[in-house]
Q: What sequence folds into this?
């Protein structure tokens, strides 16, 4: 787990909300404070779907909403003449990309043991920080996936031209 301070918030927000750069993520939850505070639970709602739709992986491939479908909604809540007073996003790397992260290092951790590679994005009115995290289905002694995810996030930010400082 690492914490990164984004040094150019406007550029980062343009990449997060105005481009496809983060579309390889799912949204677990969002909280956006502007004139109201909006909470979004990214878990897909079982009651909304028929049994056939719920079981159809083409319609519902994940348990969380895809960031690319939630991005315009979040953008609409944030845009305007006033800067939000705060926001927080919890994103998960799409499971299909997790193997690429694990394959970058020497680890015996399998996809079945990994629950998620997580990226927490938090703005408090003064600064924006990213915090990485990994979630597993059970306790594991091997911390290699944590380090691989941290490295992947830093490489991703650098490739997208997003400047940061490690905290």
A:
């Amino acid at each position: 787990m690492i914490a990164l301070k984004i040094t150019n918030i406007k550029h980062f927000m343009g990449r997060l909300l105005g481009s496809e750069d983060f579309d390889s993520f799912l949204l677990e939850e969002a909280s956006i404070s502007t004139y109201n505070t909006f909470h979004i639970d990214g878990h897909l709602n079982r009651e909304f779907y028929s049994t056939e739709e719920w079981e159809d992986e083409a319609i519902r491939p994940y348990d969380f909403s895809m960031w690319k479908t939630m991005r315009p909604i979040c953008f609409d809540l944030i845009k305007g003449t006033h800067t939000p007073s705060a926001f927080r996003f919890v994103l998960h790397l799409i499971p299909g990309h997790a193997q690429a992260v694990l394959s970058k290092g020497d680890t015996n951790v399998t996809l079945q043991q990994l629950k998620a590679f997580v990226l927490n994005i938090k703005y408090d009115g003064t600064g924006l920080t990213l915090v990485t995290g990994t979630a597993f289905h059970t306790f594991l002694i091997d911390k290699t996936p944590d380090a691989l995810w941290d490295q992947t996030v830093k490489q991703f930010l650098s490739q997208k031209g997003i400047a940061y400082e490690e905290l």
User: Anything to note?
Assistant: The chain has a mean pLDDT of 94. The beta strands are 3-6, 25-33, 37-41, 65-66, 86-93, 114-123, 128-136, 164-166. Residues 4 and 166 are 5 Å apart (CA to CA).
